[in-house]
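PROTEIN DATA CARD
Card holder: Acyl-CoA dehydrogenase
Chain length: 387
Origin: Cupriavidus necator
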Amino acid sequence: MDFSLSLEQQMVRDSARDYLAAHSDSAAVRRVTEAGAAHDEALWHAVAGELGWCGIALPEAVGGAGLGAPGLVLLQEQLGQRLACVPFWSAVCVAAPWLQASLGPRGSAHWLERLACGELRAAAVLPDDGGWQYDGVAIGAQAGADGFVLRGCAAQVADAAGADWLLVPARLEDGVPALFLLEPAALAQDARIMLAPLDTLDRTRPQAALRLDGLPVPASACLARADAAAFGLAQAWWHGKLMLAAEQLGAAQQCLDLTVAYASERIQFGRAIASFQAVKHRCAQMMVLVEAARSAVYGAAQAWETGEVADGTGIRLDIAAASVAADDALRFCAQEAIQLHGGVGFTWEYDPQLYFKRAQAASHWLGGAGAALAYLAANGPNAWRTA
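Structure generated from the sequence above:
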């Protein structure tokens, strides 16, 4: 497979890298997290509105750039490298493909147009068990005369704070899957819905717990049912996992860059520690894992864009492999960055601790590497099956 980037893709990558280096550097990230803010509002308005990043992967018919998964992966890699405090992953990488897959091209156009221009931000409630099926959905919907009544909870919802739309999967009374769209601002005074912010290890991506205690919603809030809803959830989960791997790849690359820069400046025994063979070997191992993850992520993005998504098995295997590679790369590079920074590596003043926290948190999102390995073991070409 050819992983070479087109001129357009190179421009997307380079412009994103330069913009985020200037507007989402370490100082900017620390200002947001230390102030307790959910997101960097100035950065979000810039990337969503002025730069048009929210529509990078969406079709041109809805105001997007039509660059698909390969283009979006490049943005996610740069956002992960800078730990950008924006709800991009939730809105663009999960919510948008969920609406697209559940409602189809025509049915989703109205919703996608508003996401593409950055007018609104969306968050998505994903199953707590780290799977892509409705088995782990803990929210039920009871049909009534004027709509539905929602009951249940979700332990963690990424970027729920400040979201204009909340995509909620639920099970109808007969067990049929359904997708609901809620507007938290309009329900803010209703005690039957609660979004409670969580104090988490990685404060660059805020989480909230959702509880629905008999919340009535109109029939129009149910966007999809049955196979369409189930297919949409699966697509959103796998697409989100691919883009999360791209984000982890970018964070791993930054760990390597920070380490090489520090080792080149740190003098010990009259020499920069970068000249020591042991340090070289450890940096080389970091680079090997980063490049392996990059190949896997880029390859999975190409497979998503060119493959038959409706079938999904081969594409999902590619995404699962990319997820494992990116998770391994980030965890290894984050811990090596701390070790190779020596006695200051774990301190608040240095950046490796930010990436170590992201590595630990991201290793549990969407089931982490464990869910990916389980899928590979069950569905890979050499999967063992009982008769």
